[in-house]
Design brief:
The chain is of the alpha/beta class. It has a six-stranded mixed β-sheet with strand order 2-1-3-6-4-5. Strand 1 and strand 2 form a beta hairpin. It is elongated and about 90 Å long. The two termini are 18 Å apart.
């Protein structure tokens, strides 16, 4: 059975924790992971890009010059796409890029990401340091004690801890989120996964069904 190191709030070793085999010993499916990452990133696009066509550009009411006799090319409007300041031909317009991702694909990608981290021994179960107020230095010292400062670290907790979240926010490469909101992209984007015991319990309850 897969195991993860348990770390105390002071940064010392506190033994090991067994991980659910359904979530953390899943045979990785690279195709499903690839499809999920592509779909997830596509769904992050806002689709608010917009350019003006020749109908939307201001001007163009009068013919710039007469049709013949000037020696210049024929022109009927100054908002033509070939004019500087004219409209854009076939330019981007607002578009909805969102496309639903099948639940089974999400789960298989998530299991693959969790299992990959477990196989590489990059998962740690931590006792979260108690903070009376946001203090970045405390979190930096905690990560430095684990030799993780400077790495991309994802920290999961069952409930939102505002003080800890604010303390992590100013540390480059460190992300903090609730366990039930995790997905394969966030996991694979991090070098190490740190989670509280309550977060681990919630992950196994929610995703091991």
């Amino acid at each position: 059975m897969a195991k993860a190191k348990k770390i105390s709030s002071t940064g010392g070793s506190a033994g090991e924790v067994e991980l659910n085999s359904k979530v953390f010993e899943f045979e990785p499916k690279n195709y499903q992971v690839h499809q999920f990452i592509k779909s997830f990133l596509r769904n992050q696009r806002q689709g608010t890009h917009s350019t003006k066509t020749r109908m939307e550009v201001r001007g163009g009411g009068a013919k710039p010059w007469r049709q013949k006799g000037t020696g210049r090319a024929r022109a009927g409007s100054n908002n033509s796409p070939i004019w500087v300041g004219g409209g854009r031909a076939f330019g981007p317009k607002p578009k909805n890029y969102n496309k639903p991702i099948p639940r089974r694909l999400k789960r298989q990608a998530l299991y693959s990401a969790f299992s990959s981290k477990a196989a590489d021994e990059r998962i740690m179960v931590i006792e979260q340091p108690e903070l009376e107020k946001p203090k970045t230095r405390t979190v930096v010292e905690f990560l430095a004690g684990l030799d993780l400062y400077g790495s991309k670290v994802l920290i999961l907790n069952e409930e939102q801890n505002r003080n800890f979240e604010l303390s992590c926010r100013n540390i480059p490469g460190v992300s903090y989120m609730r366990a039930k909101l995790i997905n394969a992209y966030h996991l694979l984007n991090a070098d190490y996964l740190l989670m509280t015991e309550s977060a681990l319990k919630e992950i196994e309850e929610v995703f091991a069904k």
